[in-house]
Specification:
Strand content: over 45%
Number of strands: 9
Radius of gyration: 30 Å
Number of helices: 3
Largest sheet: 8 strands, antiparallel, barrel
Order of helices and strands: HEHHEEEEEEEE
Strand order of the largest sheet: 1-2-3-4-5-6-7-9
Structural class: alpha+beta
């Protein structure tokens, strides 16, 4: 009789034990999920348009062509101008204060109204820190990566003066157009802010100043003097970005 009572009591306590075990497991899983949610707090991605002003200290760094002509002609070529372009980025939000992701852009700087231009394409890994001031999130960060600068020079005259003593005939036409591609490594510091438009969309405004670097480029024109900025690739300057980001913007 005592054995039966003991077995009945044991069977009665078994469901309570199982319930306690399930509650403990659920509590542990909830804590783990909550811990993960504190680290990964969202994600976003989108497109941005930009405009900017790029400049160089010397036209020979803008037009990489050793046969542009006399120095008097070269020094009259433009060494600065406006640029425009677009690109996009993908980001993970960490601890509700860090963006970590990747981005890529293309930017074009037209020159001389002849088809000449400097076109820059770049991409890299971004990391920034942001605050939360209501619907506004100010940020400061940097992109590290690489790209290339493609320089197309088309002269304002399709026919150039033939140097004295050149072996040509009356039907010869000399064209002085050129195309040069310069790869580079970049650091791109930026500041900006996001304005929340809901839980899944935000307006992004950003200003950067890209710093492209390369080894000494012997392809740059050296007409009467040495190029002085051996490692800094120009033209370069500030750009202003505006775009929309979509994703999980809030926890």
């Amino acid at each position: 009789m005592k054995k039966r009572i003991f077995i009945v009591c044991l069977l009665a306590l078994l469901p309570l034990s199982l319930m306690a075990q399930e509650q403990e497991t659920a509590g542990s899983e909830a804590k783990e999920t909550k811990s993960r949610s504190h680290v990964f707090t969202g994600f976003s991605g989108g497109m941005m348009l930009h405009g900017g002003y790029l400049f160089s200290d010397d036209p020979t760094k803008v037009f990489s062509n050793t046969g542009l002509g006399s120095w008097d002609y070269v020094k009259g070529l433009p060494k600065s101008g406006f640029c425009y372009g677009l690109g996009g980025s993908l980001r993970a939000h960490l601890i509700n204060h860090i963006h970590l992701g990747a981005e890529g852009f293309v930017s074009t700087m037209p020159l001389m109204h002849t088809g000449s231009n400097v076109r820059t394409g770049w991409g890299g890994v971004l990391c920034d820190f942001y605050g939360n001031w209501g619907k506004v999130r100010p940020m400061i960060g940097m992109t590290i990566g690489g790209g290339s600068m493609k320089r197309l020079y088309v002269p304002d005259q399709t026919e150039v003066e033939v140097p004295a003593g050149a072996q040509t005939d009356s039907t010869t036409t000399i064209y002085n157009s050129s195309y040069v591609k310069t790869p580079f490594f970049l650091l791109d510091p930026y500041v900006g802010m996001e304005i929340s438009l809901g839980n899944h969309m935000a307006l992004l405004i950003r200003i950067d100043y890209m710093l492209p670097f390369n080894i000494h480029n012997t392809g740059l024109a050296e007409i009467g003097k040495q190029v002085t900025w051996d490692h800094f690739v120009t033209p370069s300057g500030p750009r202003f970005y505006i775009g929309l980001m979509f994703g999980k913007m809030k926890r």
